[in-house]
Design goal:
The structure holds two protein chains of two kinds. By secondary structure, chain A is an all-alpha fold. In chain A, 68% of the residues lie in helices and 0% in strands. In chain A, 38% of the residues are buried. By secondary structure, chain B is an all-alpha fold. The two termini of chain B are 41 Å apart. Classes of the chains: A mainly alpha, B mainly alpha. Chains A and B meet through helix 1, helix 3, helix 4 and helix 7 of A and helix 1, helix 2, helix 3 and helix 4 of B.
């Protein structure tokens, strides 16, 4: 977080960091902005193809299964659970950052472990969903689902779905790896020795970005 | 999208306040519940119409994005100049979304008008899906 700022501070008169954040954190922000454009390009190309198609599968027909519930029709329930897991793990991540501000090494450890568990749960859910859809006959270039109006659908729907959720899932996976590294460094006392927990904040920014992208993926694929 | 206001005379507290974090969590959860409720009502009754719902979804999604960026990522509490270096380039999305979706729509209309074969493809009904009767071993349901 920013240092204490006196009122009427002149930022550009030299001798100070004009954005009042650490270099690594600023660069994390710019990296995330570029990553946002990558995801944006994916989602917008999905939207463009969908706008250019005469028909499109109904998400409530495709995403209606829940683990161990067999053929019961439960649209949106499973993806709501995934959304809840990701939001909850985002909260534990902010709590870890807050604990870092208070130099509370024990709480940082606790909340980082909770965040990692949340990430692994999300990945597990996604693995289940992919396996289920693959079992239904869906994959890159293979689409068993008809359009909402009953006409034959192209494979665009499944190809976009697996590409975009796959790219997001890969981000979640790398986020979990980064969080594990942060946890290990925290357990070794690296941050306590350094006197600040800025690394936790940078990992946190990345983790929230993954949550942010999921908000858009959720809307584009499951709601619209 | 991004909030561009630095609180006046903002002083970083020594103790990080966790109250706004939980408030943001409840807001995000509440918005998601509203979205699901609307979707479920639409599935059961067909009301409100889909295009109205889509507008509502997009507004609610942007609201969620705002809360995640402003509070969880703490951007709201940074210095205004830094916020602008993120928020101004993000405005490119406005053009990006409008231009490309418009283009996709135009392509669909042109193809339906000038490509008879393509327009007729949409009249062919998909064969009814056979029920997955016998599950193969090791295949999840």
């Amino acid at each position: 977080m920013a240092q204490a700022v006196p009122a009427g501070q002149k930022w550009w008169s030299g001798g100070k960091s004009p954005f009042n954040v650490e270099y690594g954190k600023l660069m994390m922000w710019y990296f995330l902005m570029s990553d946002a454009f990558t995801f944006g390009a994916f989602l917008i190309s999905y939207g463009t193809i969908r706008f250019s198609s005469n028909g499109w599968p109904d998400p409530n027909e495709v995403f209606k299964a829940f683990p161990l519930m067999g053929e019961t029709n439960l649209p949106l329930v499973f993806v709501s659970l995934m959304t809840f897991i990701l939001i909850a793990s985002s909260v534990t991540m902010v709590l870890a950052v807050a604990a870092g501000h208070n130099n509370d090494q024990k709480s940082v450890t606790k909340y980082m472990i909770l965040t990692i568990i949340g990430g692994l749960m999300f990945l597990g859910c996604q693995a289940w969903e992919w396996t289920h859809l693959h079992g239904e006959g869906a994959w890159w270039g293979r689409n068993p689902f008809p359009n909402a109006d009953g006409s034959v659908a192209s494979t665009n729907f499944t190809t976009f779905f697996f590409t975009i959720t796959g790219f997001h899932g890969f981000h979640v996976f790398s986020g979990v790896v980064i969080n594990c590294i942060m946890l290990i460094k925290n357990l070794r006392g690296d941050f306590a020795k350094r006197g600040h927990y800025l690394m936790i904040e940078k990992a946190g920014l990345y983790w929230h970005f993954v949550d942010l992208v999921w908000v858009f993926v959720f809307t584009c694929f499951y709601l619209l | 999208m991004a909030h561009i206001e630095t609180p006046p005379g903002h002083v970083a507290e020594a103790h990080f306040d966790t109250k706004p974090i939980w408030r943001t969590f409840w807001i995000l959860l509440g918005i998601t519940m509203v979205e699901l409720l609307l979707a479920t009502i639409h599935l059961k009754t067909g009301f409100p119409p889909k295009y109205v719902l889509n507008g509502v979804y997009l507004i609610l999604t942007c609201a969620k994005a705002f809360y995640i960026i402003a509070e969880f990522m703490h951007l709201r509490h940074e210095i205004k100049n830094m916020i602008m270096t993120i928020a101004v380039p993000a405005l490119l999305f406005v053009w990006f979304i409008i231009a490309f979706l418009w283009d996709g729509n135009s392509y669909r209309e042109l193809r339906n008008r000038y490509d008879r074969h393509h327009a007729e493809q949409n009249l062919i009904k998909a064969p009814p899906r056979e029920e997955p009767a016998a599950k193969k071993p090791g295949q999840p349901d």
